[in-house]
């Protein structure tokens, strides 16, 4: 299936099965804002728990925080967001559509890369076993020509970004003959800066009101509380503060469903370290975070690091963890060595010391910071993209059937088990309810008695429920039930008293955590 079709199906599936709805849909929606439905909110909560516990349970020197969304406006001056949190914006005069100039150029680079990969794939098919990819890449004239175009473009792009040279960004768009995907024209405005922060007013009268921002990252709430946490928790450096919360950005181009939203959620860790050790810690956190992703079992080849060409104003090293979505490799998580920029700047703007006295070295310093920052919504999209599966099934009589199944890791699945009485009579519903009454304290359970068992299985497959339990007449006699496993569709007959153990073993996060810490 074409990746574009797959993505459309996945978005439709999220709506049909109560995962994600467009915001205010009855009023035709609000661009780049989404609501999470009955299953979506459970999946989101499970993702957050996986992240939170992996930070604060597995690291005794990491503690949590929940800071407010509104902050003193000077916070955003000190952090650099008022002056520098902007994207280069360009409009197409014919379609009146607005784009990020850097994204247009990145898409152009991706096109060169795709052309190269297409040549390589064609050659691999032609030469089979004897194909030597590195030799082909270094000698094939079409690959070399595209590689040269890509490298030249990349060089110009990085220089323009580093110099914040907006004229050059426009010139690149013209030289590369990049067209507006809507109008097909090259009739572009100049490139200009667009600040991404939303602002509003706090205060009851217009005279007393002052401008406040909706935070564009949760990180600053951690920085301004650094000393509160360090002192009240008697924390010794190195230590970290973890936070999950909403963030808001007035994105120019809102696209790809929940990948780029105007209201979204972040899971951020700021890890405070002695100056001079930050690059070592940066490396350590890169490894820890990649293991966290890979432990979910979506395939190691689906992830890669992408080091930043242009470092943010606060960073001395930065990388993204990218996941291969149906629309290509894209950032899911950013890992930044933020130096002492934020604490030093807050110290300067607030006039309050934000230092640490190290009792072992007798030195006082402003700590350096390594940050890991992942979007809950992007992680959600990663999980759905990795697990949405369409299968053709061959029945015993040779005919075929199909099913859509979300092969969610059991630990993340919104509903852990569904219990079905085979029929609505003979005491089977009562028995099924009894099983739920035993298991509901530990697992999210669902009871279903409508439709055939086959239809009930399909519905739970589409939701991603890993276990379906059927109660039949034999259950009344010997207390056994059938347990059906979502991915293999195999069934076992087990004593219902064994269910708790079987399910617990699969849905416990312990397995993932042991994997990460091994
Ligand atoms: N505190 C650092 C920071 O905010 P970032 O790279 O701008 O860094 C971190 O954002 C993560 O937040 C991204 O990797 C992404 O997962 C998520 N994110 C950023 N902007 C987003 C948006 N508009 N919609 C959804 N997620 C977003």
CATH level-3 fold name of the largest domain: BirA Bifunctional Protein, domain 2
Distance separating the two termini? 37 Å
Strand residue content: 25-35%
Low-confidence stretches: none
For the secondary structure, the number of strands is: 23
Shape label: globular
Mean pLDDT: 94
Helix content: 25-40%
Oligomer: single chain
Q: Biggest sheet, open or closed, and with what strands and sense?
A: 7 strands, mixed
Strand order of the largest sheet: 3-9-10-16-13-12-11
- Taken together, the total number of domains comes to 3
Distinct ligands:
glycyl-adenosine-5'-phosphate
Cα-based radius of gyration, to the nearest Å: 27 Å
Q: What's the CATH architecture name of the largest domain?
A: 2-Layer Sandwich
CATH class of the largest domain: Alpha Beta
Quickly list its features:
Herpes Virus-1, single chain, 518 residues, globular, Rossmann fold
Structural notes for this entry:
- The model has no long low-confidence stretch (mean pLDDT 94).
- It is globular and about 75 Å long.
- β19, α14 (428-439) and β20 (445-447) form a beta-alpha-beta unit.
- The protein starts with a helix and ends with a helix.
- It has 18 helices and 23 strands.
- With 518 residues, the protein is of the alpha+beta class.
- α7 (141-162) packs antiparallel against α8 (166-175).
- Helices cover 40% and strands 25% of the residues.
- It folds into 3 domains: 1-71 and 211-394, 2-Layer Sandwich (BirA Bifunctional Protein, domain 2); 86-195, Herpes Virus-1 (2-Layer Sandwich), CATH 3.30.40; 415-517, Rossmann fold.
- The strands form 7 sheets. It has a 7-stranded mixed β-sheet with strand order 3-9-10-16-13-12-11. The chain has a 5-stranded mixed β-sheet with strand order 20-19-21-22-23, sandwiched between helices. A 3-stranded antiparallel β-sheet has the order 5-4-6.
- Bound molecules: glycyl-adenosine-5'-phosphate.
- Glycyl-adenosine-5'-phosphate binds at residues 217, 219, 249, 251, 260-261, 264, 266, 268, 331-334, 371, 373-375, 377-378.
């Amino acid at each position: 299936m074409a990746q574009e079709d797959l993505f459309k199906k996945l978005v439709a599936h999220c709506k049909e099965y109560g995962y994600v709805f467009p915001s205010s849909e009855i009023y035709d929606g609000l661009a780049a804002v989404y609501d999470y439905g009955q299953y979506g909110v459970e999946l989101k909560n499970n993702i957050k728990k996986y992240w939170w516990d992996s930070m604060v349970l597995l690291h005794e020197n990491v503690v949590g925080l929940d800071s407010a969304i509104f902050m003193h406006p000077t916070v955003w001056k000190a952090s650099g967001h008022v002056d520098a949190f902007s994207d280069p914006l360009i409009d197409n005069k014919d379609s009146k559509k607005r784009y990020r100039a850097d994204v247009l150029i990145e898409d152009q680079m991706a096109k060169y890369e795709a052309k190269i990969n297409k040549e390589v794939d064609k050659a691999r098919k032609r030469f089979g076993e004897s194909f030597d990819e590195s030799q082909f890449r270094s000698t094939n004239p079409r690959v070399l020509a595209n590689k040269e175009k890509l490298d030249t473009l990349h060089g110009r792009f990085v220089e323009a970004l580093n110099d914040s040279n907006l004229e050059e960004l426009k010139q690149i768009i013209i030289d590369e003959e990049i067209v507006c995907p809507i109008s097909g024209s090259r009739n572009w405005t100049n490139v200009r800066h667009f600040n991404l922060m939303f602002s509003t007013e706090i205060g009851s009268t217009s005279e007393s009101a002052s401008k406040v921002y909706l935070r564009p990252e949760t990180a600053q709430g951690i920085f301004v509380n650094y000393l509160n946490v360090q002192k009240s928790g008697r924390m010794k450096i190195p230590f970290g503060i973890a936070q999950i919360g909403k963030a808001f950005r007035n994105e120019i181009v809102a696209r790809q469903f929940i990948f780029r939203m105007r209201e979204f959620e972040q899971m951020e860790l700021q890890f405070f370290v002695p100056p001079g050790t930050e690059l070592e810690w940066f490396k350590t956190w890169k490894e820890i975070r990649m293991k966290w992703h890979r432990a979910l079992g979506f395939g190691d080849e689906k992830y890669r690091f992408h080091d930043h060409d242009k470092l943010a104003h606060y960073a001395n090293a930065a990388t993204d963890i990218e996941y291969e979505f149906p629309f290509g490799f894209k950032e899911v998580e950013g890992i930044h060595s933020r130096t002492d920029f934020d604490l030093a700047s807050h110290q300067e703007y607030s006039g309050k010391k934000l230092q640490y006295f190290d009792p072992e070295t007798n030195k006082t310093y402003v700590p350096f910071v390594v940050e890991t920052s992942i979007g809950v919504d992007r992680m959600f999209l990663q999980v759905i993209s990795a697990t949405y599966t369409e299968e053709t099934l061959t029945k015993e009589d040779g005919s075929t059937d199909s099913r859509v199944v979300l092969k969610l890791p059991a630990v993340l699945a919104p509903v852990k088990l569904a219990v079905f009485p085979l029929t609505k009579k003979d005491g089977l519903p009562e028995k099924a309810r009894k099983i739920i009454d035993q298991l509901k304290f530990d697992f999210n359970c669902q009871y279903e008695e409508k439709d055939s068992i086959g239809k009930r299985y399909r519905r739970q497959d589409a939701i991603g429920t890993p276990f379906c339990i059927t109660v039949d007449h034999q259950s009344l006699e010997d207390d056994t039930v059938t347990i059906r496993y979502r991915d293999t569709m195999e069934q076992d007959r087990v004593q219902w008293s064994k269910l708790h153990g079987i399910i617990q073993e699969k849905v416990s996060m312990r397995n993932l955590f042991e994997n990460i810490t091994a």
